Amino acid sequence: MDMPQLGISAFAVMITGYSASWLTCWVGTRRIGLRYGIVEIALAPLYWGLLTLAFFHALLRLIFQPHTWDKTPHLPDVPVADLHTPVIRPRYSSAAAGREVA
């Protein structure tokens, strides 16, 4: 079985795409004060593959379970009445719309 022949232009597009992705990551991390070294460059294609899996998982969930939301469990919210916070009721004017309240 012979390997497919890739043209030099296909190889150039692949190298240009990888380089552009790595360069933008490097610039972004440098701007916020983090490092982006050889280890991160080597792990980037693995990360891109995981992003692809996450995309297809989200797409399938959107198609088959559109109204489901995997929410992180938290403690229940404390009702406002339990915080001893006074309830502020809005004051409505009897003036007609567009007129200022005196």
Secondary structure elements and pairings:
Blueprint lengths: L7 H24 L6 H27 L38
Tag the structure with descriptive keywords.
102 residues, single chain, elongated, mainly alpha
Beta-strand fraction estimate? under 5%
Please tell me the overall pLDDT. Answer: 81
According to DSSP, the number of beta strands is 0
- Structural class category: mainly alpha
Number of helices: 2
Q: Portion of residues in helices?
A: 40-55%
What is this entry, summarized?
It contains 2 helices and no strands. It has helices at residues 8-31, 38-64.
Summarize the structure in words:
- The chain is an all-alpha fold.
- It contains two helices and no strands.
- The radius of gyration is 28 Å and the shape is elongated.
- It starts with 7 loop residues before the first helix and ends in a 38-residue tail after the last helix.
- The model has no long low-confidence stretch (mean pLDDT 81).
